[in-house]
């Protein structure tokens, strides 16, 4: 620990001897933020989605086999879903964000993912491979993903993937709300809106970053 302290990566409280993260980690984090903190680009889209629909809008990022929610913006409809929140992590294919990302991966990667992950252990039989494959096909057909209350009954979500320069689905925009707000006609409207914003955000990130 002393070697890390010498480099500024940890610091020790002299009053109680406890170790804490050091100032160099703060500097490293600040430098990384310019590359990985994309919330400033996503936030105008979240605000527009929330204002237009009244629902809660989210921006999530892929982290390996998971998506993590980075930020949210709530609309004015008084009843909300709290399945997603900032920092929430879910395996790909569970929430609508993870399903949107998974569906736009190459077929070989999807197959490998399904082979090594048994989502039924945590999320129930509706997340078996056959059901997931059917939802992936539906997502590819529509362009956007729909989660009809499969994580929490009555809490629906819809999402569209956001792509990097390699056309990899690395993020997603999501709208969530209660089931009564997601009628078939409105789902088509929300899906179209999500796709427009996801396409616009993809272009913004691709022009700003060269991964």
From TrEMBL:
Q: Where is the IclR-ED domain?
A: 24-207
List the Pfam families.
IclR_C (PF01614)
Please, which domain of life does this record's source organism belong to? Bacteria
Q: What's the protein name?
A: IclR family transcriptional regulator
């Amino acid at each position: 620990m002393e070697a890390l302290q010498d480099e500024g990566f940890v610091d020790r409280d002299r009053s109680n001897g406890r170790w804490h993260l050091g100032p160099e980690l703060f500097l490293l984090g600040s430098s990384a933020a310019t590359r990985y903190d994309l919330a400033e680009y996503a936030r105008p889209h979240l605000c527009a989605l929330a204002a237009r629909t009244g629902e809660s809008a989210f921006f999530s990022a892929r982290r390996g086999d998971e998506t993590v929610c980075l930020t949210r913006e709530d609309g004015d409809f008084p009843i909300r879903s709290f399945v997603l929140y900032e920092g929430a992590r879910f395996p790909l294919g569970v929430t609508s964000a993870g399903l949107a990302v998974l569906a736009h991966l190459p077929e070989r990667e999807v197959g490998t993912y399904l082979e090594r992950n048994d989502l039924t252990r945590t999320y129930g039989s509706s997340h078996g491979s056959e059901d997931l494959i059917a939802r992936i096909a539906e997502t590819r057909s529509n362009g956007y993903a729909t989660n009809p209350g499969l994580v929490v009954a009555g809490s629906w979500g819809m999402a569209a993937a956001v792509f990097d320069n390699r056309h990899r689905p690395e993020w997603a925009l999501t709208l969530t709300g209660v089931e009564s707000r997601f009628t078939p006609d409105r789902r088509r409207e929300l899906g179209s809106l999500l796709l427009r914003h996801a396409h616009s955000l993809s272009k913004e990130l691709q022009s700003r970053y060269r991964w």
